[in-house]
Amino acid sequence: MEQILTPEQKQYEQALVNIGQEIEQNGHAVTRFVTDDDKADWAFKQLSQLAAEHKHDQDYVDHNIQPYLDWLAKRDNKRKSFQDFLQLDLMTYALNKRRDDPKYKLNLPHGKGTFRRAKAKPVVKDDQALLSWIASNWPAERAKEAVKEEPRKSVLNKYMTPAGDKVVDDNGQIVDGMGVDTGHDSVTLKPLEEDDD
User: Fold this and answer.
1) How confident is the model at residue 36 (pLDDT cuts 50, 70, 90)?
2) Which residues 6+ apart lie within 8 Å of 164 measured at CB?
3) Are the CB atoms for 86 and 113 separated by under 8 Å?
4) Among candidates 78, 75, 115, 64, which has minimal Cα distance to 94?
5) At residue 187, does pLDDT exceed 70?
6) Of 6, 62, 146, 158, which is most buried, counting CB atoms within 10 Å of its CB?
7) How far apart are alpha carbons 126 and 150 in whole angstroms?
8) C-alpha to C-alpha distance for 63 and 57, rounded to whole angstroms
């Protein structure tokens, strides 16, 4: 299995190859600073100091970052709480305005709210009444598909349609044990981005 090298490792490997080739061709490789044992020892000392400085800096950051992370989390929690309060209040305000004026649009200099009406859908009000109705009105195969131990709403919704405050199946029969969730307005809030200036 081939070892995957980082860019630094690749650069180091290539430098070793270049040095080896230079020694083969010239009998030695040219150095820029390390020309004797004293300078080599000094270079080792510098490398040790650089490693120690890095370790010191890393320890300092590790030790001091946690209070900043705690501070940030505390501030974020306060902001989130206030943000949740404002969003809930804005949604309540917008939906109240929409109730009074179905064409109301929330579009202000610092943000807007878009409204969406959920579609009316059939909902089970009484499992037993519905099971009884299915057993007496639907063919056995469809009934088996629609019911396990309780009504399977995903299957039922394929055959059911709201009709006012009642639910009818695809044959137009009023279904016992079903009601209508008339849907509701929802609002999505989009504050405008603040400029930093």
Assistant:
1) confident
2) 180
3) no
4) 115
5) no
6) 146
7) 11
8) 10
